[in-house]
Amino acid sequence: MPKATSDRFSRLHKDSQSESSSARNPIFNTERFGQHILKNPQVAQTIVEKANIKPTDIVLEVGPGTGNLTVLILEQAKQVTAVEMDPRMAAELTKRVQGKPSQKKLSLIIGDFVKADLPYFDVCISNTPYQISSPLIFHLLSHRPLPRICILMFQREFALRLGREAEYRIMVSSIRQCATIRKGGLCDACGEFSGESGPRDPPPPVRFEEFDGLGRIVFSRRNKTVHGNFMAKGVVEMLERNWRTWCSETNQIIEDDVNMKAKVEKILDDTGNSENRAAKMDVDDLLKLLSAFHDAGIHFA
Description:
Protein name: rRNA adenine N(6)-methyltransferase
Strand order of the largest sheet: 5-4-3-6-7-10-8-9
Enzyme class: transferase
Strand content: 15-25%
Pfam families: RrnaAD
Order of helices and strands: HHEEHEHEHEEHEHHEEEHHHHH
Domain Ribosomal RNA adenine methylase transferase N-terminal: 43-183
Radius of gyration: 22 Å
InterPro entries: KsgA/Erm, rRNA_Ade_Mease_Trfase_CS, rRNA_Ade_methylase_Trfase_N, SAM-dependent_MTases_sf
Helix content: 40-55%
CATH architecture of the largest domain: 3-Layer(aba) Sandwich
CATH topology of the largest domain: Rossmann fold
């Protein structure tokens, strides 16, 4: 894609206003970062309304783009922290609020959200870059203290997964569909998805990194058996390295002829999960499996 010129970005705000009125093309695709800029004011207003922002709230916005959502959030929130990957978009957003009262309420972080150290926030709103949907969810869930609510836009297929799969349900107490969106505005047809979710509070008594590591193995191939996923190339070797590290840190004797494959298979058999398929497992199944591995000194992070 040709490099954008400054003239092009100076026209974005005017273009968004003119095009949103016709509602012919509510989403502008920036291929470099997989980001989609909302241009339909009805969609942006609906997302902000669903957040029920209080005047005392600090809001985290992920992927603000040129600020079509940001300017609406700034009208209601005490403070907004926006995390933007694209420096060009960050510059446009800065220019958009420059000299206005809302400028003092906006803090901008330029960089990768998944790697960013997040400050305190009460509410998260995101027109999520689709390529970071899953990492974004887990990064939000690992943040402390927990936010009150998250209003997130995803592709419909991913959004539907959030409500039915244990790898997400273990950390999220409630997920509710707010609206489905397509070109032209709000509708009941397929397209992008705006969802509302609340983290479990208190969260499950497990380290997030441990559960995430287990989930990556179990859900790597959802329709395969759990045994098949653990026997995939490199998994047993990785678990043995983790086990040896744990033994070293806890002054445990390391067996000379350890058979990690047999250890893993015994745990799967003893917990009754060997022939289970990931798509059929629930939260209790995963917690019991994780506990059994930990009892054997096998960790995932």
